[in-house]
């Protein structure tokens, strides 16, 4: 175990001594542990495994989601892809462009930018940044970003990755630092240790927007409840407003989406779904109406014949949608070809180790 890993592990162990059991239960990497996904390393030499993960094999699907891309998006992709290749070569003598995570993060950036309240200089909290591309895109385009990550391996990867791209605009908050923290530059990334985020006695962080992509359904219910309480009523009483929560999909179904949304409504948060983005706002009066609808749906679920009819309707809808999709194949926008070339010019026909492992070899 080298010094960087040992330093982080020691800080985490010291923090554990001061947190209650419920906080430890809420902020453990429960989903990774339940599925056996590796989330700890013993040496920084292992961190190459986290450069482009959780979206492996989705590059072409991500391009289809994007539909077409702007000059700015192509420039952002080129900046990140070239930097990732330089980082992976210099640090690990391996070659990655980050094409899978990077293109998905471009799509997630769009979801944030479509909000009417979106503006450069906004303070954003990203929960579970994963390989870190969205954080970098946000910082590059003018936002001040705080990140919170519970998985040790991803934290250490993000630390090295962020400092490679933004050596003067990225920082790690020391566990002993008093809140509020020193201010960020106009645009930059600040890593907040999960145990500081989880400590109610130091809860003075103020944000305009929170994003947690492919993750909310993977949160422990206590962790989600903490998020909703802290940035709902508590944030509003302290700062006079609450941030918007944006999520591109909710993640693996470690719990039913219906249960997750009901928990949001119970805490006064409304949700709006604009496929595939969820937008949550703290609006207690409107949330009461959505909660009543949740209870009505629960009553329907206790009537088997109505539930069966609902399931049948959904299956038929999906079948008809599949038929329509098969009949209307669209011509790819030329801009996507240019985006594809950004990656292929760096590494032709790139396949990550995880992608190769998951390929069907039968």
Description:
With 362 residues, the chain is of the alpha/beta class. The protein has a domain at 3-211. Helix content is 51%, strand content 10%. It has 16 helices and eight strands. It has helices spanning 3-16, 21-26, 30-35, 59-66, 71-92, 99-113, 133-140, 152-165, 194-197, 221-231, 233-239, 257-266, 284-301, 304-327, 334-344, 353-358, and strands at residues 123-127, 144-148, 170-172, 188-191, 209-211, 244-248, 269-274, 277-282. It has an eight-stranded mixed sheet with strand order 3-4-2-1-5-6-8-7. Helix 4 (59-66) runs parallel beside helix 6, helix 5 packs parallel to helix 15 and helix 12 runs antiparallel to helix 13. The two termini are 38 Å apart. The model is unreliable at 307-327 (pLDDT under 50).
Structural class: alpha/beta
Proportion in β-strands:
5-15%
Total strands: the figure is: 8
Shape: globular
How are the strands of the largest sheet arranged? 3-4-2-1-5-6-8-7
Question: Helical element count?
Answer: 16
Rg measurement, Å: 21 Å
Helix % is: 40-55%
Element pattern in H and E: HHHHHHEHEHEEHEHHEHEEHHHH
First-last Cα distance: 38 Å
Give start-end ranges of low-pLDDT stretches: 307-327
Averaged pLDDT:
88
Sheet with the most strands, sense and barrel status: 8 strands, mixed
Concise structural overview:
It contains 16 helices and eight strands. The protein is an alpha/beta fold and 362 residues long. An eight-stranded mixed beta sheet has the order 3-4-2-1-5-6-8-7.
